[in-house]
Amino acid sequence: MAVVFVLWLRELKKYLRSRVQIVASLGTPLMYLGVLGFGLGPVFQRAGEGSYLQFMAPGVIGMTVLFTAMFSGIAMLWDRQFGFLKETLVAPVPRLAIMIGRTLGGATVAVLQGTLIFGVTLIAGFRPVSLLAVPLAFLVIALIAVIFSALATAIGSSLKEMQGFQMVMNFLVLPTFFLSGAIYPLEGLPRVLGALTRLDPLTYGVDRRGARVADREDAFRSCVGRCGAAGRWGPVRDVRCVAVLKNRGLA
Amino acid sequence: MGDQSIIRVQHVVKTFGKVTAVNDVSFDVRAGEIFAFLGPNGAGKTTTIKMLTTLLHPTSGALELDGLDVTTHQTEVRKRFGVVFQDPSLDSELTAWENMDIHGVLYHVPRQVRRARCEVLLRMFELWDRRDDLVKTFSGGMKRRLEIARGLLHTPKVLFLDEPTLGLDPQSRNQMWTHVRDLRGSEGVTVFLTTHYMDEADRVADRIAVIDHGRIVATGSSAELKQQTGTDSLEAAFLALTGTTIRDESATAADQMRQVARVWRR
Predict the structure, then answer these.
(1) A170: how many CB neighbours lie within 10 A of its CB?
(2) By the CB < 8 Å criterion, does A22 face chain B?
(3) Do B89 and A86 count as a contact with CB atoms less than 8 A apart?
(4) Which end of chain B is more exposed for a tag (fewer CB within 10 A), N or C?
(5) B47, B79, B102: which to substitute to probe chain A, counting the most A Cβ within 10 Å?
(6) The model's pTM
(7) Distance between CA A112 and CA A114 in Å, rounded?
(8) What would the pLDDT profile of A178-231 be if each residue is shown by its tens digit?
(9) What is the ipTM of this complex?
(10) Are A25 and A113 in contact (CB under 8 A)?
(11) Any CB–CB contact under 8 A between A90 and chain B?
């Protein structure tokens, strides 16, 4: 338990110390909100969909959580060969404790970053429907963070080269983001695409058919439903991750 | 300390696909000695250390540390050694003290003992005044010293040092070896080190094993190796044992990444 805590604390300390990085990491979401938001806003409105900012803000928060969680996990690839991970791998602690510590650390950082963006969207004019929706939204954010942090930890422990990172970005992170309904509504998509969106864990976090912070109807019901869907992913990944390390003779 | 072996390696083979990195290697390290593993690039030094530190399983053969089988008693074995890898494994975004403290938690050192040990070791390695500074502000020599201090925190029986002076200036190297030699007195720890600086092995090691192409070609004290080869310096003895051809290591992906990592860290 102390091991999990200390590894979690390490991720948190590193995050809070990297002020420049925190500011820099606001860049992409701000660009989406600003450039895409204002650019597509009028089109969205003309199509009778209402305010694009209201639609997009949860998506951008979801994107931030996704990217932050994925990056922190994949940093492990680097760490494994040339950094601190080696120190933990020769320590007399179970691999699972290391994985859980890192996963929770990465997830916490992602939640903090998501919260920051939430604040930014509020300043930009985004308004959650009700106060009740806010804590529920945070629960969803936390679940997305854990899922993707666990996934990234699994990927990070099986990748061997930096080149693999580009692959993960192009074939996993970006599709996960685009297919989640973060920047456009998912209604009326071609069937294949529609099926893919349902496989995407992020969809359950940001799609407006479920509970979004901006949604009107029964936010609570769908929120709980989605927690179930999201929760199923996380633990599976951690177990797989340990299996991967075991396979490579590391555990 | 007598002739008691703390590390026993018997007929160990490690193959990666078609490449045999370590080929039927056997040697013993006695408790309390400084044992140097010498060899050209790609001779199998790091692979051997990785097997002894539970990071790789041998393809065949037996490795024992403090009487325990390294492959079957991983956790117990891990408590008994400290290791400084060729590539730095410090967290440079944390302070020296934090790096030490996390290590203590990972090795289940009780809080009070941990604090006391951290102070003793940081003072010993002349890092006490910088304990609250981020490691990224440290020089190469300071980082290495911190890694050794960290490796000793849980009072291990064996300390592995994989090329601890690589990339250090002569002053830092000199200081490093003074520290390593002092350790035996202060910590009573057995030191297993690899290097390809002959003068250093000559200076600090009680016994030396020369490895080449994955095989041990000679074992003995520096004087014995010189006598055996009829040479007057360890360097000449080394060349006599391993030949003068330059080894073309096939650059692996890991080597390429290591280079990038070094540039990055500057």
Answers:
(1) 10
(2) no
(3) yes
(4) C
(5) B102
(6) 0.81
(7) 5
(8) 888 787 887 778 888 888 887 887 887 776 544 444 444 444 444 445 555 555
(9) 0.81
(10) yes
(11) yes
